[in-house]
Amino acid sequence: MAEFSQKRGKRHDDDVLGSAVDFLLANARLVLGVGGAAVLGIATLAVKRLIDRATSPRDEDDTKGDPNCLEDSWKELSLLKATPCLQSQSPPAALSRPVLLPAPSPSAPEGPADADPQPSPQFSSPAPLCLTFQEKLLVFERNHVSIPVSHVALAKQLAGDIALELQAYLQSKYPELPFGALVPGGPLYDGLQAGASSYHVRLLAPLVLEPGLWSLVPGLDTVARDPRCWAVRRTQLEFHPRGSSPWDRFLVGGYLSSRVLLELLRKALAASVNWPVIGSLLGCLILPSVASEELLLEVQHEHLELTVAVLLSVTGVDAEDCLLLAWPLEGLAGNLWLQDLYPAEASWLQAQDNHDVGTRRRLLLLLCSVCQGHPALRRLGRAHLTQVVLQLGEEEVDWAEEALGERFLQALELLISSLERASLPCHFNPSINLFDSLREEEIDDIGYALYLGLQDPAGLL
Q1: Which helix (H) or strand (E) holds 229?
Q2: How far apart are CA 404 and CA 398, in angstroms?
Q3: Are 360 and 393 in contact (CB under 8 A)?
Q4: 36, 143, 238, 340: which one has the fewest Cβ atoms less than 10 Å from its Cβ?
Q5: 177-186: pLDDT as tens digits
Q6: Is it the case that residue 174 has pLDDT exceeding 90?
Q7: Is the pLDDT of residue 285 over 80?
């Protein structure tokens, strides 16, 4: 009778617990949905069975029962653990930060050896920053355009030492030829050096011509009809016959030939100057470039690489205030002198930036760096890009740093329009078209690359 009462009371408790579970599950469907209610039902069932086994006395039926019943309960719990928990939305960023969990106490009992290892919590990585084109441009400038101050100082020191050594060589090798002081200069000295891959220095070797014996003739007035060049003509031959000037030995048809002077100095730099000894004294390796038609010296230092261009120059002749360079020209212009507009362009850009605290020179450096790193835009040299910035620099627009991205896109548009016309006039000599040296196929390739770059400017960086 007692056993019957005990079983009856047990069934009553089961009925009460079952009713509570049914009520809970019925309401869970409304709150959690079907999936959540199923998970909650499995959990409740498993916990109920564990409580029954723990509280009910073990009788013979239990002893003879299925020994796998407890194992089934653990399987239900493992099923509950393996069931994915549905999330309606991702947790906020503040909750996705890693949390340092306290280390387990050494006295804590270890779990069973065959228990499944708890998976380590997976934390979501923070979302990447979305930068504007202006911000990306400034990052590119910091990483690819800016150069260390120590490298600039070292390059200037090497260029100055090479200038002194070459000056001493010219005075000892050609004492009859009056050369002026060799002066290093160029983009590195004017703050227009783009990138630190290779530094470029211009080493001017001026010819001291006798006043009154020489005059300049514009290239358009010569047989070459080249607006880029000038001819240096020998005058006063009736009063000062040929041979009165030490430079008369380089005359061709009554004009001072840049080609003859270039060949003389090329042979001297390649064969006569002891560059290994000079390089060892300066702590670097100096190699004259044989493949180039220009007079180039390749300087290799453990911290940098330097290219020195030796330029024979003529200035201060007649009333014309222009700088002429001995340049390897072709055809009828082979004996003429190329007018160098770089000093005037660099001075103009600096003056405009100083006037309104602008970023014209920074824009030029960005354009040069971008074009140097692009296979199709590499044909655009510093001279082309300088003319673009000079044209933009005259416009009354905002040249503050905040507008640098807009000016960059504006420069791309100006380049595309100039390529469509196949015309890029020189700022200080509009009769010179800098696109004359490009073939039609090259113009098409450059224009297409610039068009794609204008659609996705960040892809150029």
Answers
A1: strand 229-234
A2: 9
A3: yes
A4: 238
A5: 999 999 999 9
A6: yes
A7: yes
pTM above 0.90, yes or no: no
- 69, pLDDT greater than 90: no
Distance CA 428, CA 445 (A): 28
Task: List own/partner pairs for 245-251 with CB under 8 A and 24 or more apart.
Answer: 245/209, 245/210, 245/213, 246/176, 246/177, 246/178, 247/177, 247/207, 247/209
pLDDT, tens digit, 9 for 90 and up, residues 221-243: 999 999 999 999 999 888 899 98
Cβ 80 vs Cβ 39: under 8 Å: yes
H-helix or E-strand containing 323? strand 323-325
DSSP letter assigned to residue 197: S
pLDDT tens readout for residues 37-64: 555 666 666 556 656 665 555 544 444 4
- Residue 50 burial (CB count, 10 A): 15
pLDDT at residue 26, as a whole number: 56
Q: What is the mean pLDDT of residues 343-370?
A: 92
CA distance 422 to 440: 9
Q: Tokens for 339? A: 């007018």
User: Are the beta carbons of 309 and 205 closer than 8 angstroms?
Assistant: no
| DSSP string over 117-162 | PPPPPP-PPPPPP---HHHHHHHHIIIII---HHHHHHHHHHHHHH
Residue 116 gets which letter from DSSP?
P
> Is residue 13 predicted with pLDDT exceeding 70?
no
Alpha-carbon distance 451 to 460, whole Å?
11
Instruction: Report the phi/psi class of residue 58: left, alpha or beta, with left for phi > 0 and alpha for psi in -120 to 50.
Output: beta
DSSP 299: E
Both structure tokens of 35: 């999936």
Q: For residues 209 and 247, is the Cβ–Cβ distance under 8 A?
A: yes
Nearest Cα to Cα of residue 144 among 389, 366, 450: 366
Give strand pairing partners of 110. Answer: none
Using an 8 Å Cβ cutoff, are 161 and 282 in contact? yes
The residue type of 8 is R
